[in-house]
Structure formats: C-alpha cells, structure tokens
Write a structure and sequence with these properties.
single chain; Arc Repressor Mutant, subunit A; D-Maltodextrin-Binding Protein, domain 2; 3 domains; eight-stranded mixed sheet; two-stranded antiparallel sheet; 12 helices
Length: 324
C-alpha cells in the first residue's frame, strides 16, 4: 500500500526525462535536439515539473541553465532510475527474441554508401531491428548541417553505434578506422563534351567549382585551394562557385552538370560506376580525417554491436577490393 501511494505521487515520466536531458546539456535547445521536440516544449515540461514539485530546478541564465541545489541533489538518483529503465527495456527485448540496433551516421554517408547495403545486414540478422539515424552530429568540429559539433560527444545520444567522420579520438569509446578518405575533382561526362576543355588542372579556372563545405573541418582552409596547389595551379580563385553543407548535395549538383566538385570517390562510388560522374584527373589528395566505427567500451561485447561491426568491416573489405 505504501509503495502504491509513493508511485501515485510520481510526476509524469516525460517531465522527468525533459529535466534530465536539459540538466545534462545545460541548454534547452540542445535538449530539444535530443528529444526531437522544440526548445519551448522542453521549457514548458521543465516548468510543469517545477510546478508539480513546488521547487525551482534551474536558474535561467543568458547563455545557459544553472542547476539549483535541490536539482543537483536529486539528479544522480534520477539518472540511476533512467539507467535501470533502459536495462529493463533491454531485458524485455532480449526475452522477446528481437533486438534494436540504433546506428548514428552522417547523412551523406547514409545516403551514398551505407543505405545501399544495409539490406544485406537485415537479411543476415533478421532478429536485429536496425534504426538508422542520419545525424549530422557524427562529424567532428562542424556538423554536416554547419552547426557546431563538440568532439567530446563521441557517441550521440540514444545510439548504439556511430559512424563518425573525424580524427578518431573519442574518449571512453572504441574507434576503429573504417575508411581512409581522399579527394579528387569529379564532374558529369557531358561537361567534358560540351563545356570548356578539362584536360589539365589549369583548365579548372574556366569551370564552376562546387564546394562541399564539410571538407573544411580541420583548419578552415579550402580543400580546393589545397588540391589545386598540389596540382601545380597557383593563384586560382577558389572563392567562386556554390557551396553545399552536405556532401550528397554537392555530388548531386555535379551529376546535374552544374560544375566540378571536389569530393570523395568513396561517396561517389555508385555515380562513378554508373558513369554519372567521371574523374578527369588522377591526382587524389588524402585527408587526415577518416570514417570511424565508434561504440562504447562497455557495450563492445554486445551481440548486436559485434554483429554489425563485423558485417560493416566485411562490406568495407569487399568494397575496397572491388575493381574500379
């Protein structure tokens, strides 16, 4: 009877969840991103919890939220409670014979490479339900949508595995290099026939340059400038041409004949194989960042993660050894 009475006084779970996420980020907007709601909704849920409990949980500052003493005291126990709920949910899924694997992956990699192959994993492991979340927060430094992305957030919230593009330094997680990357110019075959000549790198001065802004994540310098300098082209204007905040968009513009894109043959593999794109030059410049498979150390032995990790590396080996 006492237990039932205690449960009846529990605030709604969604209010507690909004508070825990907002406290972890110290920011309503970032909490809203994780919960897939608006910042106003998070603010309203936290206010409703404060009204329910009759205490203040946050001091609202100009740029951040500050926990009150009461909030700091209860937060560790609340997180223990959510961890217990997650464990219980995992046990239920285990006993039901099915598991859910959430994979966080950059949108362009999801569209241009992983999404074309994921059906093979599903066929091999029909008892694992894959939830593929195309998250721009899997790119170090600046997300694929241009928003700042802190490297310390190695494994995005609610994800089992992340395929990250970056330097591989993710404390608390295992990070295994899946693909090194290099960049080279690519364009539609029609551009070689109908546009200005494109027989020598110097000819790029007469073409529209398409910019994939996700390339410039390390020091802010244009990779077009880097490639042209390596090709012996000096003093070229690399500021001209449209910019794209997704690699897939830049490649699509190149397929449509809008100009010459500097991008990864890895992402363009299907377009290259189908002759929608060609590489007019042989020079490819390797980049320091690479694609990494990232997962929590504590989860390394989970069957679903081991299965996906092994399958992914086998697909990578098959792809890398394929002709062309």
């Amino acid at each position: 009877m006492r237990l039932a009475s205690r449960r009846s006084r529990m605030p709604p779970l969604n209010l507690l969840r909004a508070f825990e996420v907002a406290a972890r980020h110290s920011n309503f907007r970032k909490a809203a991103d994780e919960l897939h709601v608006t910042p106003a909704a998070v603010s309203h849920q936290v206010k409703a919890l404060e009204d329910y409990l009759g205490i203040q949980l946050f001091r609202r500052r100009t740029r951040a939220l500050e926990l009150t003493e009461a909030a700091r005291a209860c937060l560790p126990r609340l997180r223990e409670g959510f961890d217990a709920l997650a464990t219980a949910t995992a046990l239920i899924r285990t006993h039901s014979g099915r598991e859910t694997l959430t994979v966080k992956v950059a949108p362009s990699f999801a569209v241009k490479w992983l999404g074309r192959r994921i059906d093979r994993f599903v066929s091999a492991y029909p008892d694992i339900d894959v939830h593929m979340d195309a998250s721009p927060r899997t790119i170090d430094g600046r997300a694929e949508d241009g928003e700042e992305n802190l490297q310390s957030n190695a494994l995005p919230a609610e994800g089992d595995v992340a395929i990250r593009f970056g330097m591989g330094n993710y404390p608390g997680c295992r990070a295994e290099k899946l693909f090194p990357v290099a960049v080279t110019p690519m364009c539609a075959p029609a551009l070689l026939k109908s546009g200005p000549a494109l027989r020598d790198p110097e000819d790029l001065r007469d073409h529209t340059l398409l910019h994939d802004d996700t390339l410039d994540l390390d020091d802010g310098r244009s990779k077009w400038e880097m490639w042209l300098k390596a090709a012996g082209v000096e003093n070229a204007d690399v500021t001209r041409g449209p910019h794209f905040n997704h690699a897939a968009l830049a490649l699509a513009a190149a397929v449509d004949g809008s100009g010459v894109v500097l991008s990864y043959p890895l992402l363009a593999s299907a377009d290259l194989a189908a002759k929608r794109l060609v590489m007019p030059f042989t020079l490819a410049i390797p980049l320091a960042p690479a694609y990494y498979v990232v997962y929590a150390e504590a989860a390394a032995d989970q069957r679903k993660i081991t299965a996906f990790r092994n399958w992914l590396f086998e697909e990578a080996r098959t792809f890398s050894s394929s002709p062309g």
